[in-house]
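task queued by scheduler; priority normal; single chain, no ligands, no partner chains; default sampling; output format set to structure tokens
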Amino acid sequence: MSQARTNARKAAVQALYQWQMTGQSLVEIERQFVEEERLKDVQKSYFTELFHGVPKNLCGIDEALNEFVDRPVDMVDPVERAILRIGAYELLHRLDMPYRVILNEGINLAKYFGADGSHKYVNGILDKIAQKIRAVEIKAKAQASK
């Protein structure tokens, strides 16, 4: 996994957090990130996909999260919510990406941005979504390792 893609996820967490907290337009937030040079060493196309893809698919993403979170999605810590939404987006819409990569990236984002122990919460939720959405992939991986 490339560092530029990891950096794209980090920038997307920050941008989505800002969007969730301020309600500013995506275009305005993205403009700020470009002007402030916060997208250096970032795979810009992936940042754009995540940052615009999450709000565009928010109903489906939050529906997937609602099944497994312990409170309404809007009540989840805003940093964790941004990370969970990115992970759920990738599990739902990036079938080319192995689910383990998505889970590991989510855990690392939670360790980087979240409160102590939030990576365990993020891992638990994303793992449950993966078990449901990526069941065929998980089963194939289990068969291959026997």
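post-processing summary
- The first helix runs from residue 3 to 22.
- Helices lie at 3-22, 26-35, 44-56, 58-66, 78-93, 99-113, 118-133, 135-144.
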